[in-house]
Design a protein that fits this description.
This protein is of the alpha/beta class and 174 residues long.
């Protein structure tokens, strides 16, 4: 697969403010319990977590993931780096409002890996949710935080991947 750098368009910015999947509302412990029920029911082979706060909260709730994508920021304020003892950590550059070819490749490689991986982003990880959905196998679960609301849970499927591809077509080549 060829990976190309893409930039967010103004039209797309407003579209992406809405959850891409099922919104689980509540406090971090409440949303973690709701997510745990979904994961037990769906039994996905792959779980991908995007965002520092989400990674920290789900890890604290002992909900494991195959891939964590973090940028050492919560609401654009610096936070401590998310780490796990047995995880492989990869560094990538991904400026705000973009999905770089480097980030695409790191996510694709991580979803193919049998190891637990943390991708630490120098820049911003928000749009990498789109890349994670496309790179994940079908029936995986991608989770990210919706500020002041809760967690968004996306089950990957052919239909969801087509929807994300339509969104990506609205981006500009970077």
């Amino acid at each position: 697969m060829t990976y190309k750098t893409q930039k967010l368009s103004p039209k797309l910015r407003s579209m992406l403010k809405h959850p891409l999947g099922k919104l689980l509302t509540g406090t971090p412990p409440q949303t973690a319990r709701k997510l745990n029920k979904i994961l037990k029911r769906e039994n996905p082979q792959t779980v991908i977590v995007v965002g520092d706060s989400t990674a920290k909260n789900l890890s604290a709730a002992r909900i494991p993931a195959n891939l964590y994508i973090t940028d050492r920021k919560v609401m654009r304020k610096p936070v401590e780096t998310f780490t796990l003892k047995k995880a492989t950590t990869i560094q990538v550059k991904n400026p705000p409002g973009m999905i770089t070819a480097e980030a695409w490749k790191a996510i694709a490689d991580a979803t193919d890996s049998s190891k637990q991986v943390i991708i630490n982003v120098d820049g911003e990880e928000d749009l990498l949710t789109l890349a994670a959905i496309l790179c994940a196998p079908e029936n995986a679960v991608v989770v990210y935080g919706q500020p002041h609301r809760g967690l968004v849970v996306i089950k990957t499927s052919r239909w969801k991947k087509r929807q994300i591809n339509r969104i990506l077509k609205l981006m500009k080549d970077g």
